[in-house]
Write a structure and sequence with these properties.
By secondary structure, the protein is an all-alpha fold. The chain is built from five helices and no strands. The N terminus is likely disordered.
Length: about 130
């Protein structure tokens, strides 16, 4: 009895045969990026068991709540820089501070690592 440690399943055999056939027919010639290094993997440091799950969530456009909050904060900050109406700026600052507070509360970190209520004092001084 021969022991085969690298057993190939039927599916893997079919896939390998198709790849080899495509290579022989030149279907992989002149592809974009041929001869170039592969792009850096954005998930370096992510556990291999979690990579597939993260990729599926990313492809489904499902983001973790913390990432969604960070995007909302960035949007609020960029909108705030272009506002001219004092009343609207005040409302935007309140919303921005609320989002930052919500993000800070969702974390399990020490308070000194939290995002500060950014720009509050400087913006208030500009509004007044």
């Amino acid at each position: 009895m021969v022991k085969n440690t690298a057993m190939i399943t039927g599916f893997e055999t079919i896939v390998e045969e198709r790849i080899q056939s495509a290579l022989r027919q030149g279907e992989f010639d002149n592809l974009p990026g041929q001869g170039q290094p592969l792009p850096n993997d954005q998930m370096t440091g992510v556990n291999n068991e979690l990579r597939l799950a993260y990729k599926m969530l990313k492809n489904a456009d499902c983001l973790p709540p913390e990432v969604t909050l960070k995007k909302e904060i960035q949007t609020a900050q960029s909108l705030l820089t272009h506002m001219t109406d004092t009343h609207e700026k005040y409302k935007a600052i309140k919303k921005l501070n609320f989002l930052i507070m919500k993000l800070n509360m969702s974390r399990n970190q020490a308070i000194d690592l939290d995002i500060p209520q950014q720009y509050y004092d400087s913006l208030i001084s500009r509004i007044e």
